[in-house]
Amino acid sequence: MSADAAVAEHHDGHPDPVRTRKVAMWVFLGSECLFFGTLISTFLLFRTRTGDGPTAAEIFDIPFTSASSFILLMSSLTMVLAHHSAERSDWRRSRIWLVATALLGTVFIAGQVFEFTEFVHNGLTVTTSPFGTAFFVLTSFHGAHVAIGVIMLLGTAGISYAGRMRPNEGMNVEAVGLYWHFVDIVWIVIFTVVYLLQV
Amino acid sequence: MAEATHHRPHPTPKDYWKIAVVLAVITAAEIWATYLPGLDAVVAPLLLTMGAAKFFIVVGWYMHLRYEERLMKNLFLIGLVAAPVLFGAVLFTFGVLIGD
Hints:
Radius of gyration of chain A: 19 Å
Largest sheet of chain B: none
Oligomer: heterodimer
Order of helices and strands of chain A: HHHHHHH
Strand content of chain B: under 5%
Number of helices of chain A: 7
């Protein structure tokens, strides 16, 4: 596809819109690496500053977070299958996988809400300690990214359902997919650095 | 350059399922390593290695970066390399100036 896009770019002197969108998405994801890098660095700086509040080892429920991490990881599978179907203009199957991905994302967010509620009940809030602040800011921003991703997935499925998805517009699903996979890889880093290494 | 990407066949749905199993196995191994006694000295590098493996599997296969042209790879790699370098320097500076 990229070779075709590169060739297409030289046709009639106009840039290929599919390739342009893809380049823009990769630039955006590169900038997002820096954004989450900032938040993860801040957490690493303050991870031991728990004050009178609970520590990570006291409060984290690794089996529960592992389950929600696994759900998000599997949503990457359903997303890539949605993209694969869209590439073949199998929009019905693509929609099924898109909705499945959105459902898995919603379950992940629900898990995060439950986890936050438990933490608050156990004495860790955003104002308890620098550790609490850094933790909640980082994981909430990730959760917000997941929520935006769910909206994008449902929007893409809706556009497809309305019959406004044309065979040459598989890039729309690919762009959403790139964003969704990125959200997944950020969680891979957060799960390792913030959860597993702190207990 | 773009030609080279054209010759490499993309994974099939069957391949994607296999990759998902690999990711699940690595995740299980991470949790197992966290709770395994006597691994204190190596648990951090072990977890970081497994996390990195999952990261690159998702980026390479699910995000298709290994099938993309060099421009796309470089765009992502710039952010990926710049982030740890930049924030490693920040962490080091804070560590030296403030201490733990």
